[in-house]
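A further point concerns the way the authors explain their paired sequence and structure data. Each protein is reduced to its one-letter sequence and a matching series of backbone shape codes. An entry of this sort, consisting of the sequence and the corresponding backbone structure tokens, reads as follows:
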Amino acid sequence: MLGGTLSLLLLSDKPVYFDGSLYWLTECEETKVISLDLHTETFQVICKAPFAHARNGFDVFMSILDNRLCVSRRKRSTQVIWSLDSSGGSKTWKKMCSLDLTNTVS
């Protein structure tokens, strides 16, 4: 049961469709990934996000890269991208890359 989680979705975050489900990030004390399975019409908490707390949806993005669910977060001048690895039955975040944004602005 998700309880009050649905009312705490990141307001600026649009869902991401992947493998038959829609995914969102929550705006809770601990940011979590939740999904809506479109076939069974059920919600579930998938896992915790790879960062503690997302205060707003303007610096956090969810997308699909390399056929995996990914989360990107900008904190100050650094953008970090994580990929969700679901192999072996467990769900773990793996850091794909970290970008120094001070070197990308001219």
In short: Residues 3-103 form one domain. The beta strands are 16-18, 21-25, 32-37, 42-48, 60-65, 68-75, 78-85, 92-100. The chain has a mean pLDDT of 79.
